[in-house]
Amino acid sequence: MRSFTFNSERDAERVSAERLTAADRPGEAQPVPERPVPDRPFGAILLAALVLAGAMLGAWEWHWRSLGVRPSYRDDEALWAIQRRRIDQGEGDATVIAAASRSLFDVQLDVWQRLAGRRPVQLALAGTSPIGIVEDLAADPRFTGRLLIGIAPDIFFSGFEFLGGRPQFTRKESPSERVGKWLSMHAIEPYFAFYDEDYALWTVLQRQPWPDRPGRPRRLHVRRILVTEADRNSHLWSRVETDAAYRDLVRRTWAQNFDSAPTDPKALAEEQSTRDRQIGRMAEAVRTLRARGVPVVFVREPSAGPYLAYEDRRFPRAADWEPLLAKTGAPGIYFSDYPELRDLDVPEWSHLSHASAERYTAALVRILESEHGADGPW
Q: Which residues make Cβ contacts (< 8 Å) with residue 366, sequence separation at least 6?
């Protein structure tokens, strides 16, 4: 056994506090190790820690509120899953919106409900082709309602699916994840402005003006521009309309992709193959839905400025939109064909201002009712 030579009472106390291991007691049963707890004012320490944490949390909340940030529900996979489950829980005959971010921002559910009498199910996903959502609905016989599919050309025809795993998450979401989202929606999200991924400390640190790494120029990441309600009724954040510097930041973020068109024959062929594949998948899904009696309408949502010029150049209407309608056999609404869908305010070139989104929704509902029937098939 190890032996010790104590030089002082302090050394003895130190050694007695050490945790002895099995090697220190060969052949002996090992007792539960004991370690003396120092006499400290733990109640006061806990109180001080709570006060400090509360002060830091309050300072962080005050900082973001001073910049105009207000509480908003987090549009995460769990919130999307809540809306998707509505179809399986008795609302299979509802109008469903499947699209990328433009229909998420631009279709105002309050206006739609006031004019059409029923609130749609909002399943649009930012930065994500709607094809995965449409295929998921086509495979669900409980969905027998109507489907409005928004088409943002650069997202749909490129096959970009930033959040494409949402339908799968809905099927595998665990009870603890559901409970966690319920608690978050009732105790955190309605009250704390900082509770957004854009204001996480690590995210804030990452976007500081650090020096660029050689060969890896810095890219702008999409900032917070969305305000979301509990049922995913959403609109463009007013700061994008009122803060010119912030609006310019969002525009510069979109503009990073405006000169990204391929030029070599191989890349061009791959891009065309992707477009054909997207249209083919959509045609198959729409065929399944329409065979079940589900009316489908495509909508080319508004864009403006350099973003619209980029889309017209890279994804021309005759080469993409028209073949989509021809191969799916579904009708379409192209925003520039309707005076009431033109000349709207698109502050950052891709999403309508809140006021314009309300006017857009009202006009869209009227077009659907007049051209495709309020109660009959679209």
A: 115, 340
Q: Is 151 helix (H, G, I), strand (E, B) or coil?
A: strand
User: What CATH number does the domain containing 328 carry?
Assistant: 3.40.50
Please report the pLDDT score of residue 23 as a whole number: 66
State yes or no: pLDDT of 213 exceeds 90.
no
Beta strands in the chain (DSSP E): 95-98, 121-122, 146-151, 226-228, 234-236, 296-300, 332-334
Calpha distance 210→41 (Å, rounded): 43
**Count of the separate structural domains present in the chain:** 1
In the chain, the largest separation of any two C-alpha atoms, in whole Å, equals 97
Whether 41 is in a domain gets the answer no
> Does the pLDDT of residue 7 top 70, yes or no?
no
For residues 349 and 254, give the distance between their C-alpha atoms in angstroms, rounded to a whole number.
9
327-339 tens-digit pLDDT: 999 999 999 999 9
Domain holding 263, by residue range, is 74-206+223-372
Prediction pTM value: 0.86
